[in-house]
Structure formats: structure tokens, C-alpha cells
Write a structure and sequence with these properties.
heterodimer, A: 5 helices, about 0% strand, rod-shaped, B: mainly alpha, Rna Polymerase Sigma Factor, Chain: A, Arc Repressor Mutant, subunit A
Chain lengths: ~90, ~180
Amino acid sequence: MNKLKNILMLSCKRAAELIEKKLEAPLSTTESVQLSMHTKMCKACGNYQSQQSLIDRALREDCKSSSNEAECEDLKASILKQLKSEDEK
Amino acid sequence: METATDIITELVQEHTSELVAFAASGVKDRQEADDLVQDTFIAAFKGLENYKGDSSHRTWLFSILRNKITDHYRKFYRGKDQEISGDDYFDKNGSWITDKQPTSLGDEEHLLDNPEFNTTLLNCREHLPQKQFAVLQMKYYDQLEAETICKELQISSTYYWQLIHRAKLQLRDCLQKNWLNE
């Protein structure tokens, strides 16, 4: 029984690693059982798992920052000036 | 006849703002984004005669910019940075340290639709240590395979995963601190 407990018991540190791994590749059957047992009992790791998949999705989505048109006019002018000096080289 | 300068001038007028928007979401500050876009146009100008016309000018510019951004991450990675620090999220038994324990962020279903949440996430991303930022961006922004990133940066896959894992631990912790306290 103790042996079984040892197999099933996962530290939070190890659980967090498996959560990261799971976002990339399927876990082995043992890992999968270990992780789901752990997250059922441990609220913190349950939160960690759902939030990491949220972060993963957010990072994958093209979060474009908006660019300010007025600032772009200055940049355009500076680029054109730079190109002109390249041209004269 | 249109000279190279005429062509590039037109491209600058037409595409600068979307190129900057694209670059700005990938690098840490606006100045860096501007510099990358400027370098892109200079490279385009110099390489105009090699432009085959088999892709649109826009696609061509974006591919130059993407290469510049990857180069930028590579340099960024090489920059000075502290090594991966010891465990400050877990105690010696591997349990969460009390003030690092993940708590609920509220209505997580709809968080991604909230622009403020995305802003908080981007701010947190900017505060990552340099190496972690570089690998995270190569993975998510450049969408490169782990294997390619390891080769580019000449690091082992174990070290790569450590960096990604640390980055994600820190991102989540930063979100919890900054999102819940707003």
C-alpha cells in the first residue's frame, strides 16, 4: 500500500512540471493518472493547470498592440531620411 | 520609370504602421520595434533587385521583418542576464511556498476576452528575465519548434524546457499579483 501511495503521490513541483509537459506532448499513462489524482486533491495545482492553459492560449493568439498613426508619421519620415542617405552612399 | 527609391518610398508610406504593430507585439519596447522596421526597409532597399515578385511586396517585407525579429531574440538571449535562480516557488518538499500558491483568478472562462487582462499579461511578459523572454517569444511569437530554438541558441533541450517552465511560473505569478490587485 505504501508503495502504491509513493507511486501516486506527486509533489506540487513535479505536478507543475507535468502540467507544462502536457501542453506540449501527451503524458504517459502513469504520469497522466498521477497528475489527475494530484490536481483533484490539490486546489493550488488545479488552479495552476487551468491558468497555464489559459496563458498558453493567450500567448498563441496574435495579441497585436495597436500602433499610433501620428507616431508612425515621424517614423516614416525618419526611415525615408535614412534611405536617402543609404542611396547617396 | 519608377526608381528603387520611388518604390521603397511607396512601401514605407503604405506598410510602416502595420509592420510596427506587428513588431511591437513581439519586442519589449516601441523603440526596438521602430528600429526593426527601419532596418527592414533598409534591407528591402538594398535587396530590391533580388525581389523576385513571386510574393507580394507586403509578404516580402513581413518575411524580412520576421527574420530581423528572430535575430533580435538571438542577440537578446546572448545579452547579460542572471542565470536561472533556485527554486523560489516551492519549498524543499516540493510544495508551493505559501505566497506563491496559485489562487483562482476569477471568471477564467472569459478572461481572454478582456483587453485589460491581455494588457496585464503583456506587461508581465515584459518583466521576464532576458533569456526567458527570448525563448518564450521564439516559441510563441515566432512559433518555432523546440528543436529549432535549441539549435538557434545552441542550448540543450533540458535547459530550454527549464527556461520555458520558469517563464510560465513567473508569468502566472505576476498575473495573480497584478490582476487580482487591480
